[in-house]
Amino acid sequence: MASEAGPRVVQTGNATLAPPVNNDLSMRRPMERTPSMAIRAEKEDLKEAAEDSFNVILDLNLDGNVRWVSPSWEDVIG
C-alpha cells in the first residue's frame, strides 16, 4: 500500500474537505525564552559590562571557589 503525500483529505458525503493552510509566517509567535535561557543571557550581559569596567568582579560558587574573575583583575590587583 502506497502512502499519500500532502495534507490529509477528508471526504464527507459529496464534499471533500482539506485542512486549512496558513502560509503567512508573520502570524507565528516568536520563540519565548525559558528561565534558564534568560539567566544565561543576563549572565553574558553582565560579563560584557564587567569587561569594560575597572571594578573587580568575582563570581564564586557556593563552596567559595572562584568561577570567574573580570578582566580588570590584572589591572587593579596586578
Radius of gyration: 28 Å
Give the SSE string: EEHEEH
Count, helices = 2
- Terminal-residue CA separation: 76 Å
Low-confidence stretches: none
* Structural class by SSE content: alpha+beta
Strand content: 15-25%
Instruction: Tell me, rounded to a whole number, the average pLDDT.
Output: 75
Spatial order of strands in the largest sheet = 1-2
What's the multimeric state? Answer: single chain
Number of strands: 4
Helix proportion of residues, in percent? 25-40%
Largest sheet descriptor = 2 strands, antiparallel
Morphology call: rod-shaped
How would you describe what is shown here?
The protein has about 80 residues and is an alpha+beta fold. The protein has helices at about 35-50, 70-75; strands at about 10, 15, 60, 65-70. It has a domain at about 35-78. About 30% of the residues lie in helices and about 15% in strands. The strands form 2 sheets. A two-stranded antiparallel sheet has the order 1-2. Strands 3-4 form a two-stranded antiparallel ribbon. β3 (about 60) and β4 (about 65-70) form a beta hairpin. The model has no long low-confidence stretch (mean pLDDT about 75).
Distinctive features:
78 residues, alpha+beta, two-stranded antiparallel ribbon, 4 strands
Topology of helices and strands:
Layout: E1 10-12, E2 15-17, H1 35-51, E3 58-60, E4 66-69, H2 72-76
Antiparallel strand pairs: 1-2, 3-4
